[in-house]
Amino acid sequence: MNVYLAVILASLALSWLLGVLSNFLTTRAMTPEPPEEFADIYDAGGYADSQAYAKANMRFSNVADTASTLVSFAVILLGGFNWLDVAMRSLGYSPLITGLLYIGTLSLASYALSLPFEIYHTFVLENRFGFNKTTAGTFVADRVKGLVLTALLGGGLLAGVLFFFERTGDSAWLWCWGMASLFSLGLTYVAPTWILPLFNKFTPLEDGELRTALENYAAGADFELEGIFVMDGSKRSTKGNAFFTGFGRRKRIALFDTLIREQSPEEIRAVLAHEVGHSKRGHIRKRLLVGIVRTGAVFYLMSLFMDSPGLFAAFGMEQPSLYAGLVFFILLYTPLSLVLSVAGNYVSRKHEFEADEFAARTTGAPQAMVSALKKLSASNLSNLTPHPLTVWLDYSHPPVLARVRALNALS
């Protein structure tokens, strides 16, 4: 068997197997009673609901991942990539336009296959547990906007990559690296004011006790904010959250309206302090830097493999092309991507602990952060006891129980 084909099929199978195994082990790790730290917030019925929700999501994940893996195997082994290439070439466009059509068609096909699962998850699974507030109109509007943005932004970036690999020879990966890095930085800068408002309404937090508490904290932490905004998260879900966007002088905090309804001013101040901690500890800069370095490494590896005859032979291609080589390299990159994802999640979890510690120290109230985390976990029906393999593979944040125990230790 072609060695490239063997690596790609094995990595797809391994990714599927790890997902199924981690879900099985997490199911086995569940206990009938909540951990003692959560006994004051979970009654028997609420904890049973959280476990039922976790199990339902894991069953859904197993079905969706199995379907995706089987389709990928079928398309690869039945020559689907070559069939599409022949169809696109027959249209008679330039290599650049043909490449955009080829990758665009693959992306749309993948999206169409995933759409029924998105619909089921939103309108059946999330509905069953009382989370979904998304209307059919909002769901459709979100997907249409997402497709348009992907076509404009993703299509433009892809066109640049194909152009540089076609025109700049051995230095193409450097040109692509520079372009992608500038694109990523620019997107981070404009997203808070131009892109996110396309999907949600952001309104300045009204004057009052909460705004005063948050502004006083930010001033005391020497943290300059462009603004504190309330996002209409309840438009789609009952789940609460908060996030930090932008950099430089365009830093802003967004609080879900659901979070504000459920948490006290002291608890929300702790949540803000956690987000400020990410900035003060340099996590955001580190993530940007690591992302830029990783992007460069990916483009360099791409330049080594994407024109390999063996790679095209693995997919039964009649003619090699830059655009098909790019797609095949992404599939070949799967095992390395899994390793880097695991490493990235480990660093991210470490950063979350550091941000929790920063919040506890600068507010002087670690129990406020504990209370906020416990309320969020209860309202979101979070799984408190995921298996270590699941955490290792999928968790960018530590399990909430580990965070609560770390904060209690600080107290």
Which helices and strands appear, and what pairs or packs with what?
Elements: H1 3-29, H2 44-77, H3 80-89, H4 95-128, H5 136-167, H6 172-195, E1 202-204, H7 209-220, E2 227-231, E3 242-245, E4 252-256, H8 257-262, H9 265-280, H10 283-305, H11 309-314, H12 322-332, H13 334-363, H14 366-379, H15 388-394, H16 400-410
Parallel strand pairs: 2-4
Antiparallel strand pairs: 1-2, 3-4
Helix pairs in contact: 1-2, 1-15, 2-4, 3-4, 4-5, 4-12, 5-6, 6-10, 7-9, 9-13, 9-14, 13-14, 13-16, 14-16
Structure description:
With 411 residues, this protein is mostly helical. It has one domain (3-198, 281-410). The protein is built from 16 helices and 4 strands. It has helices spanning 3-29, 44-77, 80-89, 95-128, 136-167, 172-195, 209-220, 257-262, 265-280, 283-305, 309-314, 322-332, 334-363, 366-379, 388-394, 400-410, and strands spanning 202-204, 227-231, 242-245, 252-256. The radius of gyration is 23 Å and the shape is globular. It starts with a helix and ends with a helix. The model has no long low-confidence stretch (mean pLDDT 93).
Key descriptive features of the protein:
single chain, 411 residues, mainly alpha, four-stranded mixed beta sheet, 16 helices, metalloprotease, membrane, metal ion binding, metalloendopeptidase activity, zinc
* Strand-residue proportion: under 5%
Gyration radius, rounded: 23 Å
- The outline comes out as globular
Number of separate structural domains: 1
List the helices and strands in order: HHHHHHEHEEEHHHHHHHHH
Major beta-sheet overview: 4 strands, mixed
Give the helix tally.
Answer: 16
Please report the distance between the alpha carbons of the first and last residues: 59 Å
DSSP strand count: 4
- What percent of the residues sit in helical stretches (DSSP H or I)? over 70%
* Low-confidence segments: none
Mean pLDDT: 93
Structural class: mainly alpha
Strand order of the largest sheet: 1-2-4-3
Cofactor: Zn(2+)
Domain CAAX prenyl protease 1 N-terminal: 31-201
Protein name: M48 family metalloprotease
Active site: 275, 356
